[in-house]
Structures are given as structure tokens and as C-alpha cells.
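In response to the reviewer comment on reproducibility (Comment 2.3), we provide here a single inverse folding case reported in full, input and output, so that an independent group could reproduce the run without further information from us. The C-alpha cells appear first.
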């Protein structure tokens, strides 16, 4: 490697904003570690939380730390014991680092490891020219998938995990929240044959993105009653599946109320505060199956995503709205802060 320093985007103080500066390149990879030269990274909602320094970030992040975890790049060095990848491989990474020793890890549930560490949250992340990661999180990309799409596989996996909580083929689906993951979930539903995909969203920019992404019906809760509209669209039955992506109490209520008796709900959205619901009427007496979704199933979800992208069943260009050079990272953050973007991509190197 020619240089011993690199550009990186850090949270270097407990306050609003991030800083790009030159820092030391990671040390050579140790046992079971991989060093990656980044090509493309994408900005996650988590990165935005750290940027604006919200309540969650204040309680979780300990500066200084390099942020970012949605990546695509090339392996340039491997440590002792690495077997699954080699120098020159084109890779991405799951953001959850499992301990591999707890009960969940030993029973094929690494995505809910009790001791999970998150890239760019608990350890230095991928908003840099180089990143060093444990082999356990590395995913080898199909060469046909562009680096831009490859960098978005981590949130794409969240969408897939939520959609595949149960079979939604030939079924009606409601998705509350048309942020990037909600948009991707809608496209996955269409790709696997859901009969109708209905979405709720209040942001005009995201409403237009949802229409362009092929969502069948987009309801603005400010302008229409969600329950009444869904009953009309489903001949009074309600939707078979409800996918919650917004983290908003009103959306959760509307979704559970609009769900048909015996249907299922998969919740990915993270709520700011405690939630109060009439569990008897909305869940128990309706016979609802409720799923809490976190992360991606390692690596079952990644394999599904690979097939959807490799065979062009989902077009992520409908979600990626902005591409910037790495030095212009703050333009992307500002757009996301104003909710005037889908996925924002940063090109780190050729």
C-alpha cells in the first residue's frame, strides 16, 4: 500500500455533524480478518442519526469513531485463517458482527446475537478508503452486480428479511413508510408476486419515489383515512400482510387495524418512545402473527438478495437517487436530513 494515511468520515466529538479528515490506514489484518479497499459506500439512516446527534446516538456512540457500514470494495489483504475470501475478491459486509459463541449464534440465529457489535457504531466503520473487518461478516459479491447496488445490499437485506417473514406471494400487502427500505420492500413484494402492494407515506418526495418504484397504491394519511381506503381496495377484507417501516405510532395503529383477521405483521421500524395499543382488539382477538425484524439472516437473506439482483428482478436504481464523490459526503447528509432523497451513494475510488 503506497500511503499510510487515508480519508475517513468520523464522529470526532459529541455534537452535531461529522468530520472528514486523514487518519491512519488500519493495521495489517490479524487472524480471521480482511482488509478492504472501498469502492462505493452508501449512507444509512443510522449514519444520519449519528450526524444529527439524536438521543439514540448520544446514548450509544463513543467518539471518535469512523462511521458507515454499507459498503462495496476489493479485498487487498487477508489474515491468517481466512478461508472464504482471497485478495482480489469483490465483497460487501453485513453490519452485525456476531460473537459466534452465544446461544443464538450456536443455533443458526447470528442476526440476533446477544453480543452483537455493529460496524460504524461499536467499531470503526466503512466511510473511509480502507476498512478492516472480521471474515465472518464478509459477503462475496457476484461480479454482475454493480458496486452501487452491492453497497446497498445491507439495507436491501432488511427489506427482504421483513418481506419474507411469511409468504406474501398472491397476497395483499401494506407497507407503512416509503423510506429506502420501505421502497425496496415494495419492489421485493412485486418481484415475488404479491397481488397488490399498498403503501402509506406523508412526504411528497417519497410518495413520488413510491409511484416510480411500482407501488400499486400510495395513501397519504394526512389526506385520506388509511383504514377506509384499504377496506375499499381489498373489498372489505383488509390486507393479508402488514410491513411496518416508519417507526410511527399512528402508522402502527393504522396497519394493525387494516390487517385482516389471521394475517401477519412484520415490524422493522424503530420507535422513539414506548407504544400503547389495545392488544386485545388489534392482535389477540384478530389472531395476528407478529414478527419483530432486526438485521438480516446471515446469510440466507443475502443469498435471496443476490438472486433478485443477479437476475434483475429488482432494480435498485429506482431507490438510489443521488451519487456523490466521497469528498462531497455532506451534500448527501443534508439531503437525507431534509428527507429529499432515497439512497445516497458515495464513490470512494474507481
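Designed residues, in position order:
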Amino acid at each position: 500500500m503506497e500511503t499510510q494515511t487515508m480519508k475517513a468520515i468520523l464522529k470526532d466529538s459529541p455534537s452535531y455533524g461529522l468530520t472528514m479528515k486523514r487518519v491512519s490506514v488500519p493495521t495489517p489484518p490479524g487472524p480471521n480478518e480482511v482488509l478492504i479497499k472501498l469502492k462505493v459506500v452508501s449512507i444509512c439512516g443510522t449514519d444520519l442519526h449519528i450526524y444529527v446527534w439524536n438521543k439514540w446516538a448520544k446514548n450509544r456512540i463513543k467518539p471518535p469513531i469512523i462511521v458507515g457500514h454499507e459498503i462495496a470494495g476489493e479485498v487487498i489483504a487477508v489474515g491468517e485463517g481466512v478461508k472464504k475470501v482471497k485478495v482480489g475478491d469483490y465483497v460487501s459486509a453485513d453490519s452485525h458482527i456476531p460473537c459466534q459463541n452465544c446461544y443464538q449464534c450456536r443455533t443458526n440465529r447470528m442476526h440476533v446475537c446477544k453480543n452483537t457489535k455493529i460496524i460504524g457504531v461499536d467499531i470503526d466503520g466503512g466511510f473511509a478508503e480502507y476498512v478492516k473487518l472480521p471474515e465472518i461478516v464478509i459477503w462475496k459479491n457476484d461480479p454482475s452486480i454493480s458496486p452501487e447496488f452491492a453497497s446497498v445490499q445491507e439495507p436491501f437485506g432488511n427489506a427482504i428479511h421483513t418481506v419474507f417473514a411469511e409468504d406474501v406471494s398472491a397476497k395483499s400487502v401494506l407497507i407503512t413508510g416509503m423510506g429506502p427500505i420501505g421502497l425496496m420492500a415494495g419492489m421485493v413484494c412485486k418481484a415475488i408476486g404479491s397481488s397488490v402492494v399498498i403503501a402509506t407515506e406523508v412526504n411528497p418526495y417519497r410518495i413520488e419515489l413510491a409511484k416510480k418504484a411500482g407501488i400499486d397504491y400510495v395513501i397519504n394519511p394526512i389526506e385520506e383515512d388509511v383504514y377506509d381506503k384499504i377496506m375499499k381496495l381489498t373489498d372489505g377484507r383488509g390486507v393479508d400482510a402488514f410491513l411496518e417501516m416508519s417507526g410511527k405510532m399512528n402508522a402502527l395503529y393504522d396497519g394493525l387495524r387494516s390487517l385482516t383477521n389471521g394475517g401477519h405483521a412484520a415490524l422493522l421500524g424503530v420507535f422513539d418512545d414506548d407504544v400503547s395499543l389495545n392488544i386485545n382488539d388489534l392482535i389477540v382477538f384478530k389472531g395476528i402473527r407478529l414478527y419483530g425484524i432486526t438485521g438480516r439472516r446471515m446469510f440466507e437473506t443475502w443469498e435471496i438478495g443476490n438472486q433478485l439482483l443477479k437476475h434483475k428482478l429488482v432494480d435498485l436504481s429506482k431507490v438510489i437517487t443521488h451519487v456523490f464523490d466521497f469528498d462531497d459526503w455532506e451534500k448527501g447528509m443534508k439531503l437525507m436530513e431534509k428527507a429529499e432523497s432515497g439512497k445516497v451513494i458515495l464513490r470512494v475510488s474507481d
